Amino acid sequence: MKRYFPLALRLIVAIILIQTLRFKFTAHPDSVFIFSHIGLEPYGRIGIGILELIAGILLLIPKTIWMGATLTLGVISGAIFMHLTQLGIEVNNDGGILFITAIITFIFSAVILYIYKNDIPFIKKTS
Fold it and tell me: How many CA atoms lie within 13 A of 93 on its CB side?
């Protein structure tokens, strides 16, 4: 169990990040609406999509897990901030699913980063 829990968290976060890319990269109306509303359409939509793709890949490579978790925390912090300041919890009558997914992704990424904290090269190792 102890061995598979971190892997399960990494897979969940990577799947969440990667499955949203189809909306961003195909200019899905909901994605366009969100990024238009916050004034980042189309460059922000594509740029954030690229960052999410990179984060998802980094989470799957053992030596770069900490980088993926850190990048995910940064990107998802921005998403949560936008929900709280400009978009609202519920966007386009989604029942708050995007916001809840962002919160879950943030929490899981923070746990992943904590689990892999000793892999960060410029942080003092703890025993």
Answer: 0
